Write the structure tokens for this entry.
Amino acid sequence: MSVQFKILMGILVTAATVVVMLLYGINEDNRMNQYQKNFAGRSIQVGAEYYETYCMTCHGERGEGIAGKGPPLNRTDLLDLKGTPYLKAIGWGGTTADFLHNTIAAGRPQFSKFYEDESYQAHMPTWSEDFGGPLRPDQVVSLTNFILNWAPGEYEPVVAPVTPTPGPTATPIPPEEILKAIPFPMPPSDQTLASGKDVYTKYCQACHGENRDGKGPGAAGMAKPPRDFVDCAGMATLGFVTHHDAVANGIPANGMPAWGKKLSNEEIWQVIMYEREPCKLFTPQ
């Protein structure tokens, strides 16, 4: 076999390999699209099983909601993925997928103001194992995908979105009176900080993060990121009175709930101390 023939065969084999790779590459997008569709379909199917196991008893077989137990999920305002009227009404800045995922993962430690008059018997529990729940992160994603599969929703909103009317401005409590209400010696003891951590884990960690850095999963759709308690330069500007006001009365414009009616005075001060502990800012200003 001559050298020229070997060279020619090498060129032909190389050319054939290139053609095969080009044809495979041309079909790769179609193959990947089909794979993604199959994966999404499987995720929805698995999510349906989780919904039946964990969610149906409160939210209904078809997401229609059950009086006294849980609000409807299969709603035109919640699952309108383009107009997002419900998300706008509650001031959520992220996507519907973000909202559903975060609500499922982190739960609702207090009732949504949107449904505060519905007299539900229990709070939305935490479902992700990241927050002590029973589901893995991928299972939370599948459950989210199943609920999104109902878009754009079958049922009308139970409560029409309205802009709340501001109430009368409360008479402010003098700062010295607020500081007098600290129910334990300062600086706080290890036991006080441990109690504060318990309160924080239950009510604050979902948004402010396990590391107190403002990077919890509930922060994804907020117009303004939650407070970073390990940013000591920023924390140095947060006085005790302002900190107490934020926890007790909330910051509605930022999505921060008011905890004054949910937590006792002692619990509020405990969690404040735990939040101030990374920067050791225990001297009242």
Summary: DSSP finds ten helices and no strands in the chain. The mean pLDDT is 83. The two ends are 94 Å apart (CA to CA). The chain has two domains: 48-148, 175-279.
